[in-house]
Amino acid sequence: MPPRADTERGHGRVRIRRGRLRKLRLSRGWTQDELAALAGCSRGAVSTWETTGRPPRPDRLQRLARVFDVPVSYLIEAGFSSPLHCLRTSAGLLQKDVARLLKVCTSTYCDVENGRQDVPERWVPILSNTYGVAPSAIRGLPVSVAPNNGGGGAGS
Fold it and tell me: Cβ atoms within 10 A of the Cβ of 68, count?
């Protein structure tokens, strides 16, 4: 199956640990229908997460973590994600949510999250507070985690 273009929700970048999700559900004696009711979604969504590893959107991922009383990081595999992407996903936020907090356009935040630009110093305290990590953790993030294939235009 070809990769999907909906990377805003992290598809293709962050995967749910499908075996772990299934084990958590079964250890509580829940059916997929019961977990779906607790997570506020359809049984089909739960089935998709357990069989494909495709993650739910960040807010639903947060809800799953609360249902199981585990950190989001316990439920996901980072794969090819940048550290900022993992932090954002763990916080249950979309790129547009973080961009709004930073008072920038989504594409600007996306460039930084994907390592095409350094994290601006003025963002450090906002991201640190939003993600609950030390400012030094934000400042120390690697740049250029995603290769630039020349498609970014002038100034990339």
Answer: 20
End-to-end CA distance of the chain: 30
Q: Own/partner pairs for 38-44, CB < 8 Å, 24+ apart?
A: 38/67, 39/63, 39/64, 39/67
Contacts of 38 (CB under 8 A, 6+ apart): 30, 67
- Predicted confidence band at 131 (pLDDT cuts at 50, 70, 90)? confident
Q: What is the DSSP string of 15-39?
A: EE-HHHHHHHHHHTT--HHHHHHHH
Average pLDDT over residues 60-68: 86
Contact 91, 130 (CB under 8 A): yes
